[in-house]
Amino acid sequence: MRDVEWGKECDMSGYPEIREKLTTVEEAVRRFIKDGCQLALGGFTVNRNPMALTREIIRQGVRDLHIVCHSQGQALDLLIGAGCVKRLEVAYGANGRFASTCIRFRKAIENGEIEVEDYSNNQMSLRFLAGSLGLPFIPSRTGLGTDIVNKEGFGSETRKEAKVARKKLVVTSNPFAEDKDEIILLPALNPDVALVHAQYVGDDGTVRIKGLTFADLEQAKSADTVIVTCEEIVPKAFIRLDPDQNSLPPFLVDAIVRVPYGAHPTACRLFYDYDPKHLNMYKSVAKEDDTFRKYLEEWVFSPKSQAEYLDKIGGAGLINIKANTIIGYAPGLDRR
Amino acid sequence: MGEHTEREMMAISAGRLIKDGDILFAGTGVSMLAATVSKKIHAPRSIVFFETGGIDPSLDELPMAVADSRVMDGSALNSGLVDAFSIVGHRKFHSVAFLGAAQIDRYGNLNSTCIGDYKKPRVRFPGSGGACDAASLASGVIIFMQIGRSRFVEKLDYLTSPGWLEGGDSRKNAGYIRGGPIAVVTNVAVFKFHETTKEMYLAEYYPGVSVESITENVSFPLDVSRAVESAPPGDDELRTLREEVDPQRLILA
Q1: Which class does domain B6-101+130-146+162-215+222-245 fall in?
Q2: Are the C-beta atoms of residues A90 and A76 closer than 8 Å to each other?
Q3: Which of A128, A187, A242, B94 sits at a 20 to 30 Å CA gap from A40?
């Protein structure tokens, strides 16, 4: 019984240019995110995580995901904790001061429940960049002599699978140098799906991310399918008035869902801050399996819509984190 | 002001190492505090930037993560990771990165990945993030650590971020063009690295701390012949730190 479906709060009939792409989180996940697919998570630790999509992936019980990301926080931790992830290529799993290491991420790795391959942020960003340019690999100078180069997480069987590079990386000499000059070659990434949460999408499909883009643009451009959730759908006349501010062209985007507070409990510049109350509560319940399961039940499975989810946060909670629309965060927010 | 905490002393000690005009790469936690302290107290013309792409933000409020929306306000430019790393490694700038870690060895190599076997770790940490990149690319690195034998180790469980590697010229021979650790700032002392061997030595101990209590808490031999007592934090330094940088005591507490 769903009175208001996930993400269906907007009137679809009003946007003829994106009628084909405009959908709900439920439909976007059902259509594009298959068991075992390779998924690039947008955002960075406590900011612009695609949380509405993440919760829907968990609700639909998607399994064996191969996650590729640089520094991820809440979305990664929830997906791992809910048992959706089989394999992970990552640089960092933490959530600011709310989790110096992501709690379920840490637990799953210590218990050997997921396969992990470590890279650095620069390396992961470059791998997406290479994928976006159609290059098979890209050189990098960071990490020479470290265990990121010397130790491998994936086993030889994993290396044979689809969407997994045959080697973690290759150290070779710069072919243009006369003297010895070692360089690392990193395999490109072309994920099946990239998830992005943006502030604005034009009613023509143009995407505008405000604030830092992290590696969202490289991730989106390297992926086969791009799903964008957004805070607001705005008129084409507005978004094309200042195209210098835009992030992705309409034809790169496959599905668009309007989900207000779609990154909660992480931040979305100009709209809301991260939610310290929620993230502190998560920190206290994520450690133990039974309390974590209760969290999923209460915050992921029970709410029948984004509206119901937001009702649980409550008006006072939402006002508390509401961003100042000029400076972009909630000044004076109690972040302890 | 008199009394001060270990974290306050750490942030101020690190700030004192910064030259005005340096380009500062700030991480999470104490390193965020130290970069902000440097800018507000010691090196007002320095630029603080974040690997996430936030370049020279106003820092009116202390960010508690490098992706905090507070690194996006009043900035010269909001960009992304690829842009940020082009600045860390830029040949025109003297960039200094602030990094923390779970383990350090005598050459300032860092582990922020795991304890135990990499494939089945006893303890898993977040991983490199941008630390390996900053340690590879920056002109210099200032490291934050708590002292302790399990942290100052003979051999790292995992080498995440390159310091002076095996000492001597090994960093250069590995392919790094520049950089390497400048100092290790701890809760009791500041360590630096020998000019040629690149081995860690005790440079400063905080007021009231004995040299023996430091050597006992480090698993490798330590040259203490150059050690001097640090100047205590000045009233101005403490006031700025407490009232302007971290009034909510997000990181100081």
Answers
A1: alpha beta
A2: yes
A3: A242
